[in-house]
Amino acid sequence: MDASKSHHVSILLSSDGYSKEAKKTKSIWRWWNQLSRFQRSLVYMFSAAVLFTIVYFLPGYSENSIVDVNKAEVNTIKKDVLVNIRNDPRDVENDFNEIENENQVLEEPADVPVEEINNAKHVLARPNIGVQFSGVLDDRQQAVVDAFKHAWKGYRQFAWGHDHLKPMSEGYHDWFGLGLTIVDSLDTLYIMGLKKEFLEAREWVEKFLHFDKNRDVNLFEVTIRVLGGLLSTFHLSGDKMFLNKSIDLGDRLLPCFDTPSGVPFSDINLFTTKAHAPKWSPDSSTSEVTTIQLEFKDLSRSSGIFKYEEAVAKVAYHVHTLEKRDGLVPIFINANSGQFRSHSTVTLGARGDSYYEYLLKQWIQTGKTIDYLRDDYIEAINGVQKHLVQRTVPNGYLFIGELLVGGKDFKPKMDHLTCYLPGTLALGVHHGMPQSHMKLAEELMTTCYQTYVQQPTFLAPEITYFNIHVPAC
Questions:
Q1: Residues β-bridged to residue 119
Q2: Where are the alpha helices (DSSP H) in 254-398?
Q3: For the whole model, what pTM was predicted?
Q4: What span, in angstroms and rounded, lies between the C-alpha atoms of 189 and 149?
């Protein structure tokens, strides 16, 4: 043994403190080994109880911090959760004066697998962090802000508090009576740094936006416009008044999902919370029942109340289980039977468009953890290329048509709505989807551009019919 090692060992052996500590540790270990399994279990339980008691009485912890999923009543509007923690407009005003966390990214927690929904016991939450913006940076941005302020001035003067402005008659139109223009504009006002206008809109929302309206509203439209608008503004500003309004609205919309199949009815009275199919049809639109998942999931993750995500996740999974044609879906689905209307049109236009878009976006929103969403999206895009893509004659522009009578007859008609697809395809490629999707995106975008540029007004038509080669009989 060399001198250094000998010296080190001698120090340890000659240390009274070390020998006493070693004996104490050895004694405790011997005592522990002599305990029976039952006695050890009692020690574990006692230690856990002590730890829980300590955590429970820590400052800032309360019984309201835990959400019991089993006690969440779908059709009950719980006013006691609408606690406005941040109801002083000066708090919001300070956000505009402090340029911090400019590019703050809100992290998404992992999604709950569908098969575990009924057993979920945890709270999904996301941070309430306001994001600040530095305002206009160049002349082009200033031109956009000026255009917005021009439109906002007209709305404020002639239609304030109503859903829409009628610019020609200088009147207004109410669709749902929920101040749609104000709620829709909140996040834009905040991002543009229009402090005065934002605070005025915020005040209207706090004082005058109430959901006890004795009138029918459309689940899809109210979700994407009002619920989405409130939630996005909550995340931008950190103002929990917007979250509280979202919870109130979410509770009023949930009865739509109280159907035999879980597929929601399309319409609901916000005051009576009575839901029903549209007056013109017994069915709901496929795109509508599959284009509410992002907002309802975000509401659960923002509030810690799981019932919203549970309702929409069941719908998404149910549609996944239905039979399709190479991933393509009919545009109508019955809320009672849960089945597609077999002979309805297949299209990426109205009533079908955003089903495909939200497959991808749900997959991204939930951390790319739900494989069936990704797989259904890829299958659907392959189906589009197989059944819906054709080229014009003589210019060879690529477009996406429709299948009629349940997929038997091709119609060379493309809604302007279909021009959402290039952006969705590009987003998918950015997140690892096949590179061939980008080629489809570029060619379809060229066609969409041509529908604008070939018009004298440079405005595209709502619907375009294309010349195609028709085989001789």
A1: none
A2: 286-289, 293-303, 307-321, 353-365, 371-383
A3: 0.73
A4: 9
> Is-contact 176 217, C-beta < 8 A?
yes
Alpha-carbon gap, residue 156 to 153, rounded angstroms: 5
Say whether pLDDT at 101 is over 50.
no
pLDDT at residue 116 tops 50: no
Cα–Cα dist 232/219, whole Å: 18
Tokens of 440: 């489809």
Q: Within 13 Å and on the Cβ side, how many CA atoms surround 472? A: 0
Q: Scanning the structure block, which residue is given the tokens 């979202």?
A: 246
Give which of 157, 76, 69, 151 is closest to 118, Cα–Cα: 69
Give the Cα separation of 84 and 306 in Å (integer). 20
* pLDDT range class, residue 296, cuts 50, 70, 90: very high
Residue indicated by tokens 């992290």? 107
Whose tokens are 């619920």? That residue is: 227
Find out whether 354 and 418 touch, Cβ atoms under 8 Å: no
**Both structure tokens of 52:** 């829980």
Spell out the residues 6+ positions from residue 411 whose beta carbon is closer than 8 angstroms to its own: 401, 402, 403, 404
Cis peptide before 330 (omega within 30 of 0): no
Q: Which two tokens stand for residue 271?
A: 């005051």
For residues 249 and 222, the answer to whether their CB atoms sit within 8 Å is yes
